[in-house]
Amino acid sequence: MTSLMTRKKIQAITILPLFYGYSAFANMEFNTDVLDISDRSKVDLSRFSDADYVMPGAYLLDIRINQKTLPQRSIQYLPLADKKNSKVCLPPDLIEKMALKTDAANKVTLWHDDQCADISAIPGATVSDRIGGGVLAITIPQAWMKYSDPDWTPPEQWDNGTPGLLLDYSVSGQLGRQSHNGSTSQTLSSYGTLGANMSFWRLRADYQANTSRQEDQHNSNFDWNQIYAYRALPMQAAKLTVGEMFLNSKIFDSFRFTGVNLASDERMLPPNLQGYAPQVRGIARSNAKVTVLQEGRTLYQTTVPAGPFVIQDLNSSVRGRLDVRVEEQDGSVSTFQVDTATIPYLTRPGYVRYNTALGQPSTHNHNLQGPFFSANDFSWGITNAWSLYGGGLLAGDYNAWALGVGRDLNVFGAMSVDVTQSFARLPNEPTASGLSFQTNYAKRFDDYNSQITFAGYRFSQRKFMSMSQYLQARYSNYNAQYYGREKELYTITASKTFMAQDSAKAITAYLTYSHQTYWNARTQNRYGLSASKMFDIANFNHITTSLAAFRTTYQGRTDDSLVLNVTVPIGERRRVGYSLQTNNSDITQVASYSDYTNPNKTWQVSSGVNQDGKPLARGFYTHNTPYGSLNANVSYQKDNYSSVGGTFRSGITATQYGIATHQNSSNGGSRLMLDTGGVAGVPINNGRAHSNRLGLAVISDITSYYNTDTRIDVNQLADDVEATRAVVQSTLTEGAIGYRRFDVVKGSKLLAVLKLADGSEPPFGAMVLNEQGREIAVVSDEGSVFLTGVQPEEQLDIAWEGQRQCRVVIPNTAKPLEQLLLPCITL
């Protein structure tokens, strides 16, 4: 008897989805005779007869406008006069986020005491009431929209995020010992950003700290590099910044100042109108710490293994010349410079890019020093081919102006030419004036699989001065016959791919070159060439070879480095390798073993000898966790040195929803806080993050102003966890802390029988709703229902005939897969 009853219940539950499938046909009537149920008089299938029927009430829904998803919000469905149907109440502020043209916006009407908006008067506009998936889908013909780029989210739909606090940091340390004298050294350094978000304002404070100890000498310092606040101005595609900052101009050299800056932000433009971020390439002789600085300010710091390295994740807003410092584990330090001059300054027709700054120069100890100034530059797109750009910097005793033209040469690339003149008055000296001429060029040769990313030439007269040079001469007594002033600068960055029949086995080569001459100072040069190739030999597939060579002449010192690497796969994600490395006259040969079987825990061990026959050993380990990333290393060379060091990068984000520690990819950048409803251990984005004890996780590698999907790894969920909403979308403004909630439930699976106060059961087809108004089950024959993901003492409402009728409470003593008798208390 029990088996027969259970079989009937299963049949009833199995048939119910058929009604969902047929609900696409409005006003359909169902023949209940096909149902194998005991009492056909107690059936409520009215809601299945209308595809768009929604029971009146409030629902927490995603808003999707033409496939662009906005954050969740509560949406009301209000009953109509006949009480048999309901109508969605669109919040009036939602209309602005639709980015409608003026003619379409004027067709929108308000109802329900102006608390609801109606878009039905817009031809072709529809609002889908099929909200079973937790989504309110709004479709508007493209003809009524302001924008038509499918790869770009319009400004009206950008998310300023939620108020919160953040701390992003990187900590590097090294402990070393020199064998020849037994001396030891300890260094510890950190840099990062402390921030606070309030509405559309972002407050940021960048810091750097260093401490070192060598024998009896100990040095420590801590500096706030800059303290500033900024906000996006979406409709102007601009960014407003106030406080301490560095001038970010495409025409004038950078210097530190305190004031206000208003500038076009090309990241807010469609992708095809945006710029690029600089790259830094070099070679490390051993496991080394690489630091990228600008005027003494740390922009980036990491630990790299021995061999060639490439830093590609610098902020796209970085401008000017960068100083790169490579600290080897034997204590030696090498430095070089990278010029980040941008590609020719071209602007789309009719559009003006601008940058305006007002303020006063400031020192690193936050004191104002120098004249009040105004700096302005612009670029105006005259036609599809021509752009005019220029600007002026006015500061009393120092003034400069610039004018240039950019030209799109079509198949011949793009080019710009400009001239800058400066006027500087120093105490007890006549006015110094000089000119600086510059030309830039960029070209991609698709037919030859190569490109010149940037090529430039600049010549400056002896008495030409930038603002930073003027401040140095004025306040540091640093003049001395214009010692150190730039004269000529040649730069080129290019790449070439030599295609093969198998594209994966093509040869890719990179070239970098810079040549800087000075008035009364030594010339500085940097040459770089790297190439890589993949091939097969016998039974060994995907053998990789790479060659990198650099020569740097800097501050009277010449460094030559060359590395030849060969790696051979010996299994899935395991490799052995050979490396030949030269540094000036020192030659080192190393054999290595690398293990990448776990992408989040990779390691490499290597050993070899130098030209004197002295053995060496190295180890490098990388561990990525949801709470940060660690690079650790150890090195030893006989009769020379031994050391151990590493870098840890992490971040902490706190909002009204809670606090979470997470990986950190960009200090102070945009991030997304994800809520899994209190469920811990939920894996997100291929395990890059896991929800903590509060059910919170943070993804920090969110690109500002770009639509991003974030998803739960549903195949990795625990058996008692289910995700009914596993994907969320976001388009965040710069520095925003976004918040999204996944629909995740963790709990028991129960088979229950529902009973009303009079001993009867709810009708077949009645809905079971959780506290958020989401339908989680349907009542079948004799009040039976299968519940998943329920918690002790959780309250569930039972609804039929268009309204909630009664409520059940899950008891504390409920056991998984146990059949319960649940009384349903009338509401």
Automatic annotation (TrEMBL):
<dbReference type="InterPro" id="IPR025949">
    <property type="entry name" value="PapC-like_C"/>
</dbReference>
<dbReference type="GO" id="GO:0015473">
    <property type="term" value="F:fimbrial usher porin activity"/>
</dbReference>
<dbReference type="InterPro" id="IPR043142">
    <property type="entry name" value="PapC-like_C_sf"/>
</dbReference>
<dbReference type="Pfam" id="PF00577">
    <property type="entry name" value="Usher"/>
</dbReference>
<comment type="similarity">
    <text>Belongs to the fimbrial export usher family.</text>
</comment>
<dbReference type="Pfam" id="PF13954">
    <property type="entry name" value="PapC_N"/>
</dbReference>
<feature type="domain" description="PapC-like C-terminal">
    <location>
        <begin position="753"/>
        <end position="808"/>
    </location>
</feature>
<dbReference type="InterPro" id="IPR037224">
    <property type="entry name" value="PapC_N_sf"/>
</dbReference>
<dbReference type="GO" id="GO:0009297">
    <property type="term" value="P:pilus assembly"/>
</dbReference>
<dbReference type="InterPro" id="IPR018030">
    <property type="entry name" value="Fimbrial_membr_usher_CS"/>
</dbReference>
<keyword id="KW-0732">Signal</keyword>
<dbReference type="GO" id="GO:0009279">
    <property type="term" value="C:cell outer membrane"/>
</dbReference>
<dbReference type="InterPro" id="IPR025885">
    <property type="entry name" value="PapC_N"/>
</dbReference>
<keyword id="KW-0472">Membrane</keyword>
<keyword id="KW-0998">Cell outer membrane</keyword>
<feature type="domain" description="PapC N-terminal">
    <location>
        <begin position="29"/>
        <end position="172"/>
    </location>
</feature>
<keyword id="KW-0812">Transmembrane</keyword>
<dbReference type="InterPro" id="IPR000015">
    <property type="entry name" value="Fimb_usher"/>
</dbReference>
<keyword id="KW-0813">Transport</keyword>
<keyword id="KW-1134">Transmembrane beta strand</keyword>
<keyword id="KW-1029">Fimbrium biogenesis</keyword>
<protein>
    <submittedName>
        <fullName>Fimbrial assembly protein</fullName>
    </submittedName>
</protein>
<dbReference type="InterPro" id="IPR042186">
    <property type="entry name" value="FimD_plug_dom"/>
</dbReference>
<dbReference type="Pfam" id="PF13953">
    <property type="entry name" value="PapC_C"/>
</dbReference>
